Amino acid sequence: MSKSVIALFALFLPLLVHAQVLEEDDQPVIVKKSPYAIVEGSSEHNRMGKVQEIFVTPVAMGPVPGVNAGFGFAKYITRNDAVVVTFSTLTKGSTCSGALTCSDSGFAVEINYRRFITNSFYFGTGLNQRSVHSEGTDEWAGNEFSFDGTTTALGFVIGNQWQWQNFMLGCDWVGVNIPLITNVSNVKNINNGSSIHDYESSKSSLVTNTTAMGLRLHIGYTF
C-alpha cells in the first residue's frame, strides 16, 4: 500500500468514526405520550371546579335588533361546557327625526350551549325567543303603522371569555340569528305614499330577517 493511500486513510478514519458517533447520538428518544396539560393560572385552569355563573350584559348588539342589555345564568357541565340562559331587553331601536316619529321595544330569552375549544375561545349555539313592538308615523306622507311581532330563531356566536379566580369577563364578538318561526299581530298600517320608515321595513328588520349580533359584553361571577 502506497504511502499516499495510507495518509488518506489516516486522514478520513477519524471523520468516519465521528460520523458514526453522530449518527448514534442523533437517534430520537421515544417517550410515552403525556396526559393533557393545563397551564397553571390560565382561564381553563381557573374554570376547574366551577359549577355556576351569573353575569350582566351592559351592552350588546342583539338578539333583539338594536342595542340590548340584560343578564344571565350559566350551569357548567364540565370546565369547557356550559348551558347558558340569558334575558335581554332592547335599549335603543330605530331612530327618527323631523316629521318621522318611531318607537321600538322588545325583549328576548335565549338558551345556548357554550363550548370552549381553547383556553378562552368558545362558540355558542342555541335558540332564542324574542317579542317586539314597533310603531311609527310619517306626518308629511300621512303614513302610520304599528304591530307586535314574535320570532323563534336559531343563534350562533363566537367569542372569548377570560376567567380569574371567580371574576370573569367575556364578549360574543360576532353572531347571527336565523328565524325559524315568525308571527306578526295587531297590525295597523296606513300608507298613503312612499316613506323611508314604514311597516314592511320595520317588520323585516325586527321580525322576519336574519340578523347579526356582536360585541355582546358580559361580566360576571363564577362559583
Q: What is the mean predicted local confidence, pLDDT?
A: 88
How would you write the strand order of the largest sheet? 1-2-3-4-5-6-7-8
> What's the Cα radius of gyration?
31 Å
Helical stretch tally: 3
Derived from helix and strand composition plus strand pairing, the structural class reads alpha+beta
CATH C-level: Mainly Beta
The quaternary structure here is single chain
CATH superfamily: outer membrane protein from Thermus thermophilus HB27
Short description:
By secondary structure, this protein is of the alpha+beta class.
Write a structural description.
Strands 1-2-3-4-5-6-7-8 form an eight-stranded antiparallel barrel. The chain is elongated. It is of the alpha+beta class. It has a single domain (44-222), classed as outer membrane protein from Thermus thermophilus HB27 (Porin). Helix content is 17%, strand content 57%. The model has no long low-confidence stretch (mean pLDDT 88). It is built from three helices and eight strands; from the N terminus they run ααβββββββαβ.
List the helices and strands and how they pair.
Blueprint: H1 3-25, H2 43-47, E1 52-61, E2 67-78, E3 81-92, E4 100-116, E5 121-138, E6 143-163, E7 167-190, H3 199-208, E8 211-222
Antiparallel strand pairs: 1-2, 1-8, 2-3, 3-4, 4-5, 5-6, 6-7, 7-8
Features:
223 residues, alpha+beta, 3 helices, Porin, 17% helix
